[in-house]
Every structure is written in structure tokens, then in C-alpha cells.
Amino acid sequence: MGNIQGLDIQIPHDVAQYWGWFLAFGIALVVLGVAAVVRSVTATIISMLFFGWLLVLASGIEIAQAVLVGHWAGFFQHLVAAILFGVVGVIMVTRPLLSAEVLTVFIGTFFLIGGLFQFFSALAVTTPGWGWHVADGVITAILGLLVLAQWPVSGLWGIGLFVGLDLIFYGAAWIGLGLG
How far is CA 2 from CA 6, 9, 126, in A? Predict the structure, then answer.
């Protein structure tokens, strides 16, 4: 292992000058994250409505793009994307709980398969720190199993919990930047 004591890190002047805003932003994100974890069902519904409206907006943009493209070869791709975005967005806005249940199955399956892949690949290719990769794979696969074992009930709280945890860690990173 090399010695890193001589590493000179320059903090940009803007970061040093506005450290209080970064700290406040991080604290606000942590508070929102804790609220989302405590009220995970509400956070799940709000997330589905938010992403649904984003898809409806994206559908409108794709329709405008298809009209602007006109007779160019990309017209049908934009039109199909607009229809897909619109249909999925409307479904998410009108049926947020059903959308959350479906997305929770995808998330649980992703965690399970991703965790198993990381577990077996870490065992097959033993690089430095391979034990941490094995542990991460096991934890991720167990998380996927837990989410899938509780489905469809986990569809009510799962996404809100994940969004809340993400906000907490993202806020902690901003707090670290502000205090650093």
C-alpha cells in the first residue's frame, strides 16, 4: 500500500463559501428521508404519482418531437415512445398502488438476481476485498427475498422505504460535503 499523505486536495472556492447551504440542503434531505421511511406507504403513493406525471409529461414531449420530426425516419419511434410513456404514466397516476406492487416485484427480483450474481462472481474471481463483495451479494439477495416474500404487501411500503433511505444517504453525503 502506498502512502497518500502528500495528496493535495483543493476545495473549490464556491464549495467553501456556501458550505452552510450544502449543510442545510443535506439536513433537509435527511429530514425528508426520515419522513419517507416513517410514512413509507404515503411516500410510495407520492412516488408513483410523481413518476406517473413525469411519464405523462415525457409523452407530451415525445408527441411534440414526433410532430417536429415529420416525415423523417424517426417519426414512428417517437410516436411509439409517446404512446408507451403516456399509457404507463396514466396507469401510474390512476392506479398508484397497483403500479407500486408491480414495480416492487421488479425491484425484489432485481435485488435477488443482482445479489446472486455478485455473490457467485465474487467467489469465481477472487480480487482484493472479495469478501466484501460476497457479503454485499448475500445481503442484496436476502433483501430481494424479503421483499418478494412479503409481496404484495411489500408493494405498499417498499418503494417509499427505498426512496426514504436513498434520501437519508444522499442528505448525509451533502452534510459531509458541507462540513468537509
Answer: 11, 17, 22
